[in-house]
Amino acid sequence: METMNSFDKPEYFENRELSWLKFDARVLNEGRDKTLPLLERLKFVSITSSNLDEFFMVRVASLKDMVHAKYKKKDIAGMNAKEQLAAINEDTRKLVELQYSTYNRSLVPQLRANGIVILDEHEALTKEQAKYVDNYFMEFVYPVLTPMAVDASRPFPLIRNKTLNIAALLEDKREEGKTEFATVQVPSVLPRYIKIPSASEEEKDTFILLEQIIERNLHQLFLDHNIICAYPYRVMRNADFSIDEDEAEDLLKEIESKLKLRQWGEVIRLEVEEKVDKKLLKILKESFQIGNEEVYKIPGPIDLTFLMKMYGLEGYDELRNPGYTPQPVPEIPKGSDIFEQIKKGDILMHHPYQTFEPVVEFIRQASVDPDVLAIKQTLYRVSGNSPIIASLAQAAENGKQVTVLVELKARFDEEHNIVWAKKLEKAGCHVIYGLVGLKTHSKIALVVRKEDDGIRRYVHLGTGNYNDSTAKLYTDTGMFTCSESYGEDATAVFNMLSGYSEPKTWNRLVVAPIWLRKKFLSLIRRETKHAREGKEAHIIAKMNSLCDKEIILALYEASAAGVKIELIVRGICCLRVGIPGVSENISVHSIVGNFLEHSRIFYFRNDGFEEYYMGSADWMPRNLDRRVEIMFPVEDEKLQKKVRHILDVQLADNIKAHILQPDGNYEKIDKRGKILVGSQQQFCDEAMAASEKKEEDEQERVFIPVQPV
């Protein structure tokens, strides 16, 4: 019999960071897919860039810190930090090269063929265009710019993280042969691309990039100098800060102070235009104290995230997929009393196919309902103008007990969450800033209501954040219940978060970091035992990332015992498939589509006594060991069928799914001769059909003639 130890070999695992780069390559693959509408492709190329930025600021930065600290420990794939950085460097350069060849050779020509022209720096402007551009510069750009010269009295300035800048070599007109260096930031307060007059009737819309306008007029900023050369550049800095929470008397103030340090972090990547002057590049490298491995020469516009805004260009609907409007949840009719609807039975929601509005309405109705005594909720990431925040503040002002856990350590949302925390405190809410050393990533809301038959607790549990904006873009599931056992557990969760109360047992919920890892391992091992005994054994698990070694070893043991394991993993997957005697019974699907796959769903066959779970945690060490996460069972048979349907349709996807191969690469399914299944489109169609059917049913009820007595 194989043991978990016999599966513990570095060659059985994929490096986490290289796996993530493969995910970003799958995103780029959508941008390269010529069957997609043109502006949709633009969007995916933009997402590739923003993903890569965050990857460098956090993951690459973390590895750099390890190298500086002489940390030699190897990862599960047998690579130390230095080896990982070298491999990342190689794979990233290939990815960026493919990204820009897609942009330059495919997207730009096709945009032009559709009347959308993005001028490059080599294209000459017509007289009309030149006049327009120069006037635009003097009126809108010039007043905002701050040219910064570098000399003995003026040190090299702080170049802020992710900002686009232009570096220039200047020659003093009064002192021939004397060259000087200067830099100017491309202002982010102005649009990155500017519409200008078109050169011909074929060009419907012509755009020039802001940095090109500045380069063209650089002489206006340095009147006593000749411009020898000028090139755009951008730096990426280490944005991963650590906090000693035990020493921090006020976590809110500590995080506020640390946020400012992000602009000063070590430079980990320098992007420069491909044909940059050698002398200019040398100055930049010395100033940022970096070597050639940190320099990326870009054959096109630096930072392609501006393409996301171009995606929304008016007048080109035929170049985009038709928009989708999230459909009503049939069990919660618009304008209904949400508590009465929940009392009828547990309600499952599938976003964004179904609207997130019931969740917003749940908190809104609770805030004004005179029978509601208390509202308790966790907030990890919320939208810019969150209606949920407004309702919580309103509830406190209405005299209800409101407890909100705001996770200040939600990366890149720290500043945002500080603002909301202060607003909620001002309104009279009891605000908790999470537990020391742990991020609170769970998604739970509890409403305590006084009713005729006593106190009743209503609970919402979800896989996604309480963010009404991202709920239109992320696929997530959520459940409403007023079952007493869930209510008791929800109360215990909030008592644990706000005080020192830790329940000995739970009715339904499974909470990390104490109980969840053990639960997952026991569920996987139970399937292994069933398979060895010849009983029915099957695991289906959907998540964002899979990189926990202990979980992977348990899956290998289950696979070797004959358990069929079907994984749907959007991003990182450190497990390898198709290893003889180890992972032959494991398949991995990754779906990249219009919506970001975000839900976490788990199915265990259990010899026919099927169990379904949903929750906030991925199979990652951080989720299982360093975060407060909640997993909850779905026990209602009707809801279980809906959950199974979600999993089955995703596993049948042969349009947007990429399948992990034994060599570690991902490939799309050969669709020839197959019925085409696109899971995201199918869920949209099903939600619309359900909504139409409900409308028809309601109309039939309205028009049924009353029979005389």
TrEMBL record:
An intermediate of this reaction is the autophosphorylated ppk in which a phosphate is covalently linked to a histidine residue through a N-P bond. It is an enzyme of class 2 (transferase). It catalyses: [phosphate](n) + ATP = [phosphate](n+1) + ADP. Residues 13-118 form the Polyphosphate kinase N-terminal domain. Signal peptide: none annotated. HAMAP family: Polyphosphate_kinase. This is Polyphosphate kinase.
